[in-house]
Amino acid sequence: MKAVYSGLHRLHNPGSVVEGGVARRSRDVPDRLDALLRAARHAGFEIVDAVDHGMAPLAAVHTGRYLSFLSSAGCGDACSGWLAPAVFENRPEMYRPDWSLIAKAGYHLRDQLTPLGEGTWQAAYWAAQAALTAASLISAGERITYALCRPSGHHAGRDFGGGATYLNNAAIAARALSATLGRISLIDIDVHHGNGTQDIFWEDPLVFFASLHRGPTDYYPHLTGFSDETGGRSAPGLNLNHPVPAGTGDAAYIAAFSTCLEAALSHGPEVLVISLGFDALASDPARGLQLTVEAFRKIGEMLGGLNLPVLLIQEGGYDLMSLEKAATTFLLALAPSPNDPH
Question: Of residues 9, 108, 155, 267, which has the active-site annotation?
Answer without folding.
Answer: 155
